[in-house]
Structures
1.
Amino acid sequence: MFKIHKDTKNWSKNILSAKGSPFETQLDLYYLFFIVGIGQCKSPNYDKEKVTDIIRNYTTPFQAYREVYAALLLVSEIENSGLEMNKELVSKKMENILSTYDSTILSDNSFELMNQYAFGGFELIREEWPKAPPNSHDFLKWYYDVMLQQCFTDKDWK
Amino acid sequence: MIINLLGWKSYGLRCPDTEVAFDSSGKTKSINLVQMPNGTGKSTIIELIGAALTGNGTEWSPYVVKQFSNNNDYKEYGEFELRLSIEMPGKKAKNIAFKLDFDFETGNVLYSTLRDPTVGMDPGWDPPSELRPFLDEKCVEVFVFKGDKVEHLLDKDRSDAEMSIKAFFGLLKLEELSEFIEEDFQKRSGSVRTVSGQTQKRKNLEDWFTHRRLLKEREKTYISELKPLYKIHDILKGKVEKAMAGQTRNNAIKKELEKALNESEVALSSATKECFESLRNPFFISNKISLGMETLHDNLEKLKLPGTSRVFFEELRDSDNCICDRPMDKAAKAAIIKNCEGFLSDDEINIINGIKRDIDKYSSIAKSKQKEEPFKKQEECIKKYNEDNQSYKSHVAIMENEVIDKQKDMMDEFKDILGKIQEKENILKVLQKKEGSYLDAKKRKPNDCRQLFLIDKVIEKLEEELTEIDGTVEELRAKNKLKKILSDACQLANDNLKNEIREQCNIKLKKIIPEGDWLEVKKIDNSIIIGFGDKEQHRGSGGQNVAVAYSFATTLLERSGAEFPLIVDHPVTALMESARRELGKKLAEICHQFVGFIIDTEKNGFTESLKNHTNSIQYITLFKKIKGNEIYLEMLPKDKNKVLESENGIVCMDEVFFEQFKDVNPDEDI
């Protein structure tokens, strides 16, 4: 189950499902938070009271990328382990990350991990943008120009 | 008597400081076209021409006077001088001038008149005696056509047509004389010694007289109070209409800006969606992500993860023979069971293959495109959207400011004036109502009667009763007879004049209006009634209405023996091009001097037609020296004799310039 920070609802009131906004579902925002979390290696253990369920599966626009997101999670986990990539490590991580029983190909552990990244990512974004962004286009521009640049030039992403 | 307009001079007023001369070539032309862009002060100049001719500027309230000041370059004083020539049969033409001196600080206007150039200006408005009877406000309105004049002549609810006839032919004077006779009789009968026994009747009559005087005084007061109110009403009405037109224009601009904003909003929305779509693919997010993924892909290849499905070994385990035909013994089966754990299931293989395939696929997609492209496009869209949004908001703010700061005050003022006019008109309507039974009125007290018509009837009856007793019955009969003669004469003259003017009008109309468009003046009541055959019609087309109004005005002028110039604001604005051409053909025949104040868009069809039918045309273009009008300066002719320049205005008397002139900055008229 994908879970999102409860504060997202109020924070995203101007950009989620607003006129002309590309963000149609909470998973759209969840994804942006997740990427930031991945970029900054922020996967804090959160208080379960602070998150809320959003959806069990990927929405259609994300469905086509499910293998890539799983790979991204895999890469991130391997990179973050600090170990050299080898057969055993990859097998182990794949076992931990992937699931043949879920249409998302994600294991329960992966869901938890992604939720943690998304939670961490939201908190990072909120530090920069404490009040609700006024519109989706300015927010997305900032996200791309500032936030992503900041995330992926950081030393944590190897 | 032929009166020609020679020109005017203005200084410190809403219109530019200029001198316009229709006699610059030594002689006035039949057709004089004064082209002025909107906002240059056409209405102001026509108002001033009217005021110079009638002398009624002294009746203006300070508010009205101050309306003539130049808001952009305020001066405490202003001047307007109108020059005319008067030609009497067999005599040399003489020039006269009326000058208005405005004091904007006090809101006063002082007149002076030039009747003899060797003596100079004399104080006051003092036209020559032969001209004076025609310079009544109602007469001047006949040949100085302001905005709604054409409509007013045909408006059944107005009596402009009848009042013009009465004014031009002195019938109003007969009505005044009748009133004077009544007042005189009342004064004299009041001084007749009271005969015993008649005290009560006399007292009653005196009460009716007193009440009549009071109501007459009230009527006079309301009429005189209404005059300046009408003036303010006319000024404000023009402004309100122009403000409304401005608002319509602003609304059209707002709509265009709104459309542009909506379009850029849609473009921005689409560009933002494209950006987000691109971010769904992690390879677009960062090169580092791409690198990590590609490394994983390579490693998946290098690690040579088992390429055979676990299912194969599970099936082999359960077989009797191995794939190499050797029998499967227990040891072999145990070894297979132990080692097949290291192989992947079909599903796992599919997932891994899917990962490798999609890394290839989305990496290729990302490589085939510039990842910054959608965001560059979005940046342009944001810029355009912000510009459009700013333009829209600024325009709306300007509109709101205009409405709030100026138009709202003006509308309130206009409503206030309308209310005051309505109130006074309602009272006058009651005072002047001519119906009801005087017998009923006679039974009541004088104070209970508000209709002068009934009061007059009651007085007439009471007078008859009293004069029979005190022996003045002969005087009363003589007075009534005289009044009846005057009234009958006035009515007869009015009817005959209306009939004659109607016939003359129709002769003129036949010349002006093309056959297929024919209509005639059916009768003249309070207003001009037009129609065709047996049918009367409320209104004609724009061209027909103008033709009727011009025919009426010129007929009146000719019939009065005084030929005045026809001075018209926007002479063809309501006319289709074909009607303009028809009018252009005949205009020089209608009157001896025509002065038309036009804007550039009125030239189409009209000037060309005029030029084809007369050589006697004076072309004048007048514009302000303000920002935005620089383009006109470059177009001015090299011949400096054709250009007059002042501090804030230019007068050009060149035909080519006139024809080429196009208003580049249309704005509201003033």
Note: The beta strands of chain A are 2-5, 51-55.
2.
Amino acid sequence: MLAFRSEAHVDRWCDETGHERGAAFPLATAWRLAERWYRDRLSPEWRRRTPAEAQAVFAELGLTGEFWNLG
Amino acid sequence: MALYERFVEDGEPPGAGEVADALGIAAADAEAAFRRLHEAHIIVLTPATTQVWMAAPLSAVPTDFRVETTRGEFWGNCVWDGLGVVSMLGGEGTVRTRCPDCGEPMALRVEGGQLLETDGLAHFAVPAKRWWDNIGFT
């Protein structure tokens, strides 16, 4: 996951590098995802999320649709 | 956990031998444990070694995501992980990166658990179900 200055920068980078246009969303959402995902990473109780739990985290943050489907 | 604690403490991941010493187990057992963590997608080893490459959100090698925290400076694997390092280490810090399109530096500052710089976008090129096909790129 990369950080871009704007939507236009994402479009140009995808065009110039041939990368697929994937999912673009506000950095504030990326922060909430990072916080939700890693806040407890050093806790002794930490365990890897199941795919269903991971999917639920994405859904809470509005990251839905086929792109976010863990299948 | 021994691995993560050492990584945060030293700024670089321990080798299997160091973890073995710390836990009082055989080096071969620590290496086997590293491989199991790799197979379980909890850490990523440098190919054909038992050296830790990634212990998400931390990277053992320099990346485009330098993270400054109250517990030291680290590398993140991507912007998600860079912000994840800040969250994991107390919610105060800055992720320094560059826009891949124009090269302009970007500083994502988090204070008191809040992201201050909200201009810009995060972009994920790889759909979720393919993240582990090539985790180095993802």
Note: Chain A has a mean pLDDT of 94.
